[in-house]
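Protocol step 4 of 6: structure prediction from sequence.
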Amino acid sequence: MLVMGMVLLSGGCKGAKTTVVVGAKDFTEQDILGNMLYLLIEAHTDIKVDYKHEMSSNVVFAAIKSGDIDLYIDYTGTVYGNYLGYSEMRSAEEVYDIAVKALKDQYDLLMLDPLGFNNTYTLSVRKDTAEHYGLKTYSDLAKVSQDLILGATFEVLNRNDGIPNLKKAYGMSFKDEKAIDGTLRYTAMAKDEIQVTDAFSTDGLLLEYDLMVLEDDRQFFPPYYAAPIIRAKTAEKYPELLNLLQRLSHILDDEAMRELNYRVDVLKENPTETARNFLKARGLMPAPAAGSGT
């Protein structure tokens, strides 16, 4: 893992006039994480912050390369596969190290320590299905896949790094395969119209529908550990940002991120308040000033 030598934060960037721009992608988890970055910088420095979200992966990566944004959180597997074009199966550590080096060498970008959770693709089943068939891993699923119907997104059903090669890797052969997008996959699971579906491992709807995430015991899907990425020029101008961002190192696991997504997607909490409450609970937001009444 990347370990960066940094001076402890000794205060904000007092009197700063310029602005750093925090970016985020166009889904709930990214909005929560983007708000964490925004709130941390706003609370601990005098740097002005703009927040731009609702961007696709390619758009946000182009934006940080061009300088339209200064920092955001991305995923090791996205950098490794989508941006750098690698396809070989490697360990999480190798993927991270390759991403760190290539981002710095090719784009002068710094990828910092991961936040701790891995938002990779996964397969999930109802708990009663898991109990009936004794399912804990993909290998377990492969043994009974001929009796089960898979409902997955169209993209995952057709991508080479999705279901087609997953079936080859594990020797799976489902009774039937249905293309079902969005939340309809979950309602189909609830009605037992399908017995297996794809998901992101930190999807809040896994909690809403009380599904069990199976273990990818042969590590077919690449690791997607979330980590901050910042322009080297921005880090040079505001070195205190590096120390601040490192406070997020390994602060979240899959379960905690899934809970945050659940709060926004299912309980309809505001993403900014969800992020703020999480940071407060981890001691990352300053205490209110005496006499502030808050």
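Step 5 (inspection) to follow. Confidence is low (pLDDT under 50) at residues 1-17, 290-294.
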